[in-house]
Design brief:
mainly alpha, globular, disordered C terminus
Length: 238
């Protein structure tokens, strides 16, 4: 199904085109097109609708769920201080999951038709069109599906009463991740910490895409040696 010398037509739905790029896909997808208007993915209006999510939908939908999960552990007898520790630990677990997924799954190298197609849907579209504001956050329907295995994974290591608060903390970490990610692309931070985080993330997009895999924090990049050299971060974002 690979067409050698294939050229993507940006005026047509992209998802089922990119697979034909074969080994050229990796080079193509990492040449960003900087435009706030994103491309069309599918011919079908229904599937196209499911790929677009406004950033504010994430906290609107998921923060009540976070509160519900934490309240479940509270009703099982845990104190506010215990809940705080569980939530913070859940957030920390999320930051590691965020880093791991971004580094090892989202940046996996593909060349087959379906490998390229799935990678483009998962993360490649964001690198090709990094300013597409309606495809910066994860669609709620997909998050809802993935929440079940995440709950079951936590349940393997936690007690029945601590599982809800830990999952709530992880889900809160996810909300922070998506909102932060959108802000780093479209916000104009005034504080030094936020400006540095924006420089660090945009460096990942526009200069050294094999480094800088954290979004909400550079913690795990520093731990695992994938933090971009400061000179390279500054050079690209001047």
């Amino acid at each position: 199904m690979i067409a050698h010398g294939f050229t993507v037509d940006l005026n047509k739905p992209l998802v089922f085109q990119v697979g034909h790029l074969g080994e050229d896909y990796q080079e193509w997808v990492h040449q960003p097109i900087v435009s706030k208007e994103g491309p069309r993915f599918f011919e079908s209006d229904f599937w196209e609708f499911l790929t677009r999510t406004a950033w504010w939908a994430i906290p609107t939908i998921w923060l009540p769920v976070v509160c519900w999960f934490i309240s479940m552990s509270y009703r099982m007898g845990h104190t506010p201080s215990e809940l705080s520790l569980m939530v913070v630990f859940g957030i920390l677990v999320w930051t590691l999951l965020e880093y791991t997924l971004h580094r090892f799954l989202f940046h996996i190298k593909t060349s087959s038709y379906w490998g390229n197609t799935i990678h483009y849907l998962l993360h490649g579209c964001h690198h090709k069109h990094p300013m597409d504001s309606l495809r910066l956050v994860f669609p709620p329907a997909a998050t809802a599906i993935l929440l079940f295995p995440f709950w079951n994974l936590i349940k393997l290591f936690a007690t029945p009463s601590t599982t809800p608060a830990l999952v709530g903390g992880g889900l809160l970490g996810y909300v922070m991740y998506d909102v932060t990610h959108h802000y780093l692309h479209h916000g104009q931070p005034s504080g030094q910490m936020a400006r540095n985080l924006k420089k660090y993330h945009l460096s990942h997009h526009f200069r050294i895409q094999t480094l800088g895999f954290g979004i909400t924090s550079s913690l795990w990049d520093r731990v695992f040696g994938t933090f971009p050299p400061p000179s390279k971060v500054a050079e690209k974002t001047r």
